[in-house]
Each structure stands twice: as structure tokens, then as C-alpha cells.
Amino acid sequence: MSGFPALVTGAGLVTPAGVGVKANWDTVLAGRPTAAHLPELDGLPVTMACQVPDFSPRELGHGSWQWDRFTQFAVVAAREALEQAGLTPGGWADSSRVAVIIGSGAGGTATLEAQHRILLEEGPSSVSPLTLPMGLVNMAAGQVAIDISANGPCLAPCTACAAGASALGIGRELLRQGVVDVVVAGGAEAPITPLYVSSFARMRALSRRSDDPATASRPFDAGRDGFVLGEGAGVLVLETEEHAAARGARPLARLTGYGASSDAHHVTSPHPEGRGAELAMRAALDDAGLTPGDVDYVNAHGTSTPLNDVTEAGVVSRLLGDGVAVSSTKGVTGHPLGAAGAVEAAYCVLAIRDGLIPPTAGLVDPDPRIAVDLVRGTARTGPVRAALSNSFGFGGQNATLVFTA
């Protein structure tokens, strides 16, 4: 194994599966779907989504009302990740050696939609001066950096549904290049809004099972008819081996491989042969110094859409063989877009830590065209020495991460 190891020393999660790592992991391992009817979506083409439960921004303290929901998620997840890592925000020996990278596909869409309505209904003088400080895609990264007093590089990759994974891959590169010692990286998204729901519905990307939301997100199932929109944030703390060792930190896992590619094919549909996805997966394995036979688990992009699931499974089968365990946690969380890659990266870290592979919720009747070892029903027990996490986004954006024990 020759991949540069970025040590994962902390994780933070805010998703429809719960607020906090423990609540998330319990829900994901149990395979409990979170999709539900949301009254605020009544009148739209789809009235269900996966929403973060019991989330109160009041706990964030003074000034958090000036943050869009996606930023609130990011700050909560970052604080948990740092606490788990045993790092004190603001207590840095050299704050210029601490980077923050939080990706997002949409940014503060709720803020932008609300202010656009005000512009049309009340005129420009009524638009909030906080519209851009709340709505810009980079504001989750910026507010996390402010919150933890980090003066290193502050970046916000916007690679659609691959954004969270891109952030982690870029963070590892900063560590490898010696630019920083610590990276707080992940993704955040809060897209359950009228415009986003309506847009995805018009594209026929969303499941129409609004009469039975709990069965709507069903990755790899023969009856799948689209994804369920989700929201949330996932953040990991990455460190160099030297920095972690100097403070006696014990890693949860290691990020040892990253691959990125473009389909260069279509703005929304995957390449029919999964060419871009395969390039990203091969690059990540090569970067990690692993062979296909070294991978024990694939956390698939697995969106529950007709095209993605068959294409992705075909690449996994072709590259890794039919015996590697595969599951999609979107059966529980829905699809949190730009946060997905970071959230699912955290689940890979937990799978390595605990030797447990989460099942694919909603998977009852596997698509006969899919020839991989799909984990369903209950979590699977066994050592996970290497886990691969796939994230693919609109525009043909592909990112793959490899985590090892």
C-alpha cells in the first residue's frame, strides 16, 4: 500500500438519519428509511423528502440566524468532528496550518428563493442585505472557518453531487503537499425548497411514490423510479500522520486514495458504459496503491434512479468483480446532493471502525441486470480493511475516495 495517508481523526454528521454520528450510524445500520410527506411541499409535483429531524439552530449561538440552513448544518457537523478529534477550535498552535473545505452543489438556495420572492412582490428596497452573505455557495466554508478560527486555505468546491467527496480529496492533497497540518472538510446542502423540488420533478429525477414515502428511495431495486431529495452535512477532520502522532490522536481510518474525472458526455445522464466513473475509481485505487481485490466494501452513489444504478453496478462488477459488498445508504438518507459524498465517506469510516457494512434500505427486488453482492435486509458483519466511496454529479462530475484501516 503506497497511498499517502490522511488520518481521519474526527467525524460530524447532520442528516435525515439524525443529528450526530451515533444517531446516524444507528439509523443507517438499522436500514430505517427517513422519507416522509412534508406539508410545506403540498401543491408541488412531489410532496416528500428526507429532512433532518429535530434540528434547532438556536443551539449554534448568537448570529446563527444570519446563516442559511446549509451553513447551520455545516457548523454543527464541523463542531462535532473537531470534538471527536480532540481538537479545540481556536486553540491552534498555528491557525494558518488549518484549512477548511466545505463543498456544496446549491448553497443557500432557501435564502435565494425567499429573497427573490420578496424582490418580485415587494421590490428591490425590501431585499435583505444578508442575501449574498447567506446564499453564496462558499458561505458554509467561510462561516466554519470563522467559527473555528482557521486561517489556512478556505475552499468551497462546487461539483454538484460530488462536492463533498471533492472537498475531502482536495483536503488530502493539501496535506500531502505540506501546505497544512489539519483539514476540516466535507459537504453541506439544504435543497428542500419549492424551486429545487419542482426542478428535479420536472426532470423526472424524483420518485413519485408520495403515497408511500418510506418505500420511495430504493437503490438497485427493480421498481425504483427516482431519488428522494435529502439534506444535511458531513464533515471529517483530516490530519497528517506527524500532527496526529504528536498529540497522541488515534485515527478512525485513513483516506488513502482519491480519483476524479469527467464523463464529458451529457449534463445529467451518466455515460452509458460508466466511462467517467471507471476512470475515477481506477485513479483512486491507483492513488491508494490498492488492487481491486483489496476492496471489501463499496458505498455506492446508488441514487435509486433507473440509469445510475445499473451503470454504476456495471462499473463495480467490471472493475472489482461480483464479490465485493455493495450498498447505498441513500435508501435511508435520500440524496443530499453536494453533502452526499462527505456523509457517505463518514459512513465508510464508521464501517471500517466497527466492522459493519450498512444495508441498502428499500431494496426488496434487486434489478436482475445488476450482478454485484448487494447488502440488504440487515447490516453485514466482518472486517472492512478498505472501503471505496463513489460520488457522481450533474455535469459529468465524478469523485471516488478510498479509505483504509
From TrEMBL:
Domain of life of the organism encoding this protein: Bacteria
Swiss-Prot/TrEMBL keywords: Acyltransferase, Fatty acid biosynthesis, Fatty acid metabolism, Lipid biosynthesis, Lipid metabolism, Transferase
Residue spans crossing the bilayer: none
Ranges for domain Ketosynthase family 3 (KS3): 3-405
A Pfam family of this chain: ketoacyl-synt
EC identifiers of the protein: 2.3.1.179
NCBIfam families tied to this protein: PRK07314.1
Annotated protein name in UniProt: 3-oxoacyl-[acyl-carrier-protein] synthase 2
